[in-house]
């Protein structure tokens, strides 16, 4: 699993950008019009997301379109689900132990 995914997800602005990209590809300019950010700030955030493998870019003439890449999110979700399951099992064992005590 790539730690860069969690670093990228730690920032609320990047999470908002991912939510928008989940609706479909768009440009950095298009994103900057929807958020209170400059185009340069959007491009910097997109670079972090691209470095984590969560965003891919494609050139269409003079424009660069960014799109969501779901695989890293799927890997992070699977890891969190596995971790959650382990904790659920531990808590269940603790609950049973406590309930068995006189």
Question: Explain this structure to me?
Answer:
It is a single chain. The protein has a single domain (about 5-100), classed as Winged helix-like DNA-binding domain superfamily/Winged helix DNA-binding domain (Arc Repressor Mutant, subunit A), CATH 1.10.10.10. Helix 3 (about 30-35) packs across helix 4. The chain is of the alpha+beta class and about 100 residues long. It has helices spanning about 5-10, 10-20, 30-35, 40-50, 70-100, and strands at about 25, 55-60, 65-70. It has a 3-stranded antiparallel beta sheet with strand order 1-3-2. The chain contains 5 helices and 3 strands.
Topology readout:
Layout: H1 3-9, H2 12-21, E1 26-27, H3 28-34, H4 39-51, E2 55-60, E3 63-68, H5 71-100
CATH class: Mainly Alpha
> What structural category do the secondary elements indicate?
alpha+beta
Summarize the amount of helix as a percent range: 55-70%
CATH architecture identity: Orthogonal Bundle
User: Per CATH, what is the topology?
Assistant: Arc Repressor Mutant, subunit A
Name the average pLDDT.
91
Number of domains: 1
| Unreliable segments of 5+ consecutive residues | none
Distance between the termini: 44 Å
Total DSSP helices: 5
Global outline = elongated
Give the topology string: H per helix, E per strand.
HHEHHEEH
Question: What is the alpha-carbon Rg in Å?
Answer: 19 Å
Which sequence of strands runs across the widest sheet? 1-3-2
CATH superfamily: Winged helix-like DNA-binding domain superfamily/Winged helix DNA-binding domain
């Amino acid at each position: 699993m790539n730690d860069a995914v969690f670093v990228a997800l730690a920032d609320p602005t990047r999470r908002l950008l991912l939510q928008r990209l989940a609706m479909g590809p768009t440009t950095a300019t298009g994103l900057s019009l929807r958020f209170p950010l400059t185009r340069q700030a959007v491009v910097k955030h997109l670079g972090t997301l691209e470095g984590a493998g969560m965003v891919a870019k494609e050139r269409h003439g003079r424009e660069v379109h960014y799109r969501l890449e779901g695989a890293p999110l799927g890997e992070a979700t699977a890891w969190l689900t596995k971790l959650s399951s382990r904790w659920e099992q531990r808590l269940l064992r603790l609950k049973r132990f406590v309930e068995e005590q006189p």
